[in-house]
């Protein structure tokens, strides 16, 4: 009886048009019973969803005629919120391709040609479908195929080297939206200037990248994830996910800070210098283009607008990012030397910092990255530091409470209150992942002993915290205040 009901439910969702409507009851059974399903998630009141509707219908009409095995569907998540929660949707419209039940999200522009290209790349991702369409004796057929698709992997092998196909097929279970072709003719490989047997990933531009590693699923997968990317990777949502994909194991990025729109001759010349370097170090690092039109990205990586175009290295180690600044003439030789010095461990990380303020008056003093050690690690006094982000609501709520606490200790010359914007400044050995936070650096020793405040962010609680944990004594501070009223400690 259950089987009959399931068949009825699946049959009941079919519509006369090219798009099938799914609901909470039919959604999972339908996807599990079809090998190729495209799903559009939408709500009726969404403006962008309404704009996408005719585009999606046009793509569905065209591709269902060309590829009858593909079924186009849609889900109204307003009427079916359970599906939205199941798929962890954070907004609409969203398009996903389900290949044998595996979800492949579309992350491109909601335009007909881009959506169609995404779907066709997945549809043609099979050895058989592509192999049969190639006449091995005609080199032009192969070249036409390579230009048609954004990326194509070609396995040049015969019956004596089928392990190449086996390793590739296992790896492609993780990455299915690539076109794959098998060529068993040695003559074709020779004319394409590649070894036989071999695996080669081609970009539509014609550049081919030969795989030189072991015929192991994980190693081939790592190669595909790296070779699939352009030489200089755009810093967009879809590409950054691939840059930070842990499966390829690459933690080093060379950032190219330059305008995305109207780059100018200088930025274009720099880009031309970087392209061969990107190919040279492919598999060791990524070269990423950071658009300089985004000031928050520039601030985050410690680059000033006046420095653009420029480059810098970033090494992502666990939750930490170590940055290395480039200096000197922008030449291929200097950039290669810069990279090699990092690989040999000869470079010191760069910590971003705001410019040191020309005037700095209390009761809450401004601390920047370049002045942090001098102002905070002072064994002669207790230093209370607020770590904050200017755009953060909780940081803004803390500001008046912290100021009140600072005023309470204004006549105590052995205590200094300071604040540092962690979005614009970095300090070695300070974890700024959580904010706002208040830390007391105690007087005595080397000035680095610290106690973090964990109570309610109120002035009276902060005052009690400082009194209980200070390293200096009240008598010492009164004596210092009487001897020298001049702001010795506070004029950093």
Automatic annotation (TrEMBL):
Alphabetic keyword roster: Signal
GO biological process: protein folding; response to endoplasmic reticulum stress
One cellular component term from this protein's GO annotations in UniProt: endoplasmic reticulum
Taxonomic lineage from the root: Eukaryota, Sar, Stramenopiles, Bigyra, Opalozoa
Protein name per UniProt: Thioredoxin domain-containing protein
Highest taxon, organism lineage: Eukaryota
Residue ranges of every copy of the Thioredoxin domain listed in the record: 8-124
Family designation: Belongs to the protein disulfide isomerase family.
Any Pfam family matching the protein: Thioredoxin
Keyword Signal: yes
Organism: Blastocystis hominis
GO molecular function: protein disulfide isomerase activity
Keyword Signal among record annotations: yes
Signal sequence coordinates: 1-15
InterPro entries per UniProt: Thioredoxin-like_sf, Thioredoxin_domain
